[in-house]
Amino acid sequence: MRTPFLVSLVGKLGPSAWLALSGFMLLTLILIPASHLLLDDGHPLHISSYAITLMGKILCYAIVAVAMDLIWGYAGILSLGHGLFFALGGYAFGMYLMRQIGRDGSYQSDLPDFMVFLDWKEMPWFWWNSDSFGWAMFLVILVPGVLAWIFGYFAFRSRIKGVYFSIITQALTYAAMLLFFRNETGFGGNNGFTDFKRILGYDITSPGMRTILFCLSALLLVKVLLLSYVLVKSKFGRVLTAIRDAESRVMFIGYQPLHYKLFIWTLSAIICALAGALYVPQVGIINPSEMSPANSIEIAIWVAVGGRGTLIGPVIGTFIVNLAKSFFTVSFPEYWLFFLGFIFIGVTLFLPDGVVGLFRKLRSRFKKSATDVSVSHKEAA
Questions:
Q1: What is the pTM of this model?
Q2: What is the pLDDT along the chain (381 residues), one digit of tens a residue?
Q3: DSSP 288-322
Q4: Within a domain: 179
Q5: For residue 61, what is the enclosing H or E element?
Q6: What range does the domain containing 145 cover?
Q7: CA distance 316 to 324
């Protein structure tokens, strides 16, 4: 009996990879939740609500970074508009969260507070069935997926790539941000959605729900990493990297790059949207600023810092940059943007392969040194 394709590929993970994966799941699914829920606030090992929310947020960012790595690291498509798909997923799920408030809002109306404030008499048509959890998750996948497919089809069919593609994606997310800032669009305008209270009838701010959302973020990250590993190690992944390195040659031997690029582009957008849907209930707000071009550029920085084309590198880069951001925005808020620029310039000049690339070089040198020493000892003997 033949081993299923997915199982066989995942089974090729090395012992160190399985050890790291097991350690990560032990930490995120057992140790951190137990520390948050079972230990008192005064206990030195207790993890506060702020800390678990921050870690959950960074896990969502890490998912987005892996999605970016799929298109940039393996397909050579640099998007400066992935923040749009992340925000659309957040808005789609945010509609459900707003409906879950019910009459507990400031105006005690069946309409969301921002609609009452703007003197709306009824919900717009696109809010239909938005109080359904299943429908909300369907929209989280459908809306960003369809938008990405349509945009990608016309862009890739026209063979737009390189810096031109990056500029167009940045223009797309900027246009969407301006649209969502308008009050008449029905998405809360400048303030967006906030003041969430429940998910499936459970208090969204309770320790238990915060822990569940954190664990779901960790699980989604693991699943996205495994799915990405399967894709890049398959024939599809080999063709994708060939398109990145020499698209004209790939076309010459009979492959159609459009289909490969369109699939990975759409999949990457959907992954970003799922991360956005998990991000919103944890931070408690979604507004048009999540679509700002600066946010999308920062996603690319996470991938560059960790090492593009490595899968695990973007995760590491996300944690490095965002933990540094949390420190600097509290201790030295006026210097954060300078520090971010310094990181990007430093990585570009001195670490073109990112942190993972540096680690691999150091490991290779260590092995070479160990080999040379062993050979010298044998010759001496």
A1: 0.92
A2: 445 555 555 566 778 888 888 999 999 999 999 999 998 888 888 999 999 999 999 999 999 999 999 999 999 999 999 999 999 999 999 999 999 998 888 888 888 999 998 888 889 999 999 999 999 999 999 999 999 999 999 999 999 988 999 999 999 999 999 999 998 899 999 999 999 999 998 999 999 999 999 999 999 999 999 999 999 999 999 999 999 998 889 998 888 999 999 999 999 999 999 999 999 999 999 999 999 998 999 999 999 999 999 999 999 999 999 988 888 887 787 877 788 788 778 877 887 888 888 888 888 787 777 666 666 666 665
A3: GGGG-HHHHHHHHHHHHHH-TTSSHHHHHHHHHHH
A4: yes
A5: helix 49-72
A6: 48-293
A7: 12
User: Is 10 a domain residue?
Assistant: no
State the CB neighbour count (10 A cutoff) for residue 121: 7
Residue 72 to residue 308: CA distance in whole angstroms: 7
Q: Is residue 19 part of a domain?
A: no
Q: How many structural domains is the chain composed of?
A: 1
Who's near 306: CB < 8 A, 6+ residues apart?
A: 65, 312, 313, 314, 315, 316, 317, 318, 320, 354, 355, 356
Given CA atoms 79, 83, 84, 86 in this order, what sign does their dihedral have? positive
Q: Is residue 264 part of a domain?
A: yes
Question: How many Å apart are CA 182 and CA 189, to the nearest integer?
Answer: 5
